């Protein structure tokens, strides 16, 4: 049977417990800030947003990209992959160019 102990307490109390038991070796950078300025209400892991659904996040460039991809057919080129480990990738998407 699985344990639900990880669900009890706030994220701060759980991280403090992990630090005390030695599971986490280094103190997270954000922990001091959250302890100094705690939120009014800590979010719960199973908390649903008000209204039942998460809000749609749309940026102004999303509409431009949508129009671009509607107008131009993009040929897939499998040999040109973008590496997520490089600071500045060698290959940029057609839309970004």
UniProtKB/TrEMBL annotation:
InterPro entries in the record: mS23_dom, mS23_dom_met, Ribosomal_mS23_met
An example Gene Ontology CC term for this record: mitochondrion
GO terms classed as biological process: translation
Keywords associated with the record: Mitochondrion, Ribonucleoprotein, Ribosomal protein
Positions in coiled-coil regions: none
Domain Small ribosomal subunit protein mS23 conserved: 2-89
Keyword Isomerase annotated: no
Pfam families in UniProt: MRP-S23
An MF annotation (GO) of this entry: structural constituent of ribosome
Localization of this protein: Mitochondrion
Similarity comment: family membership: Belongs to the mitochondrion-specific ribosomal protein mS23 family.
PANTHER family: MITOCHONDRIAL RIBOSOMAL PROTEIN S23, SMALL RIBOSOMAL SUBUNIT PROTEIN MS23
Name of the molecule in the record: Small ribosomal subunit protein mS23
């Amino acid at each position: 049977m699985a344990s639900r102990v990880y669900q009890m307490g706030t994220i701060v109390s759980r991280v403090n417990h992990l630090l005390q038991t030695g599971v986490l070796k280094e103190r997270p950078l954000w922990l001091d800030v959250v302890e100094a300025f705690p939120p009014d209400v800590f979010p719960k892991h199973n908390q649903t947003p008000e209204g039942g659904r998460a809000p749609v996040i749309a940026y102004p460039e999303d509409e431009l990209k949508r129009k671009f991809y509607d107008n131009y057919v993009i040929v897939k080129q499998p040999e040109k992959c973008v590496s997520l480990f490089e600071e500045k990738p060698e290959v940029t998407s057609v839309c970004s160019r």
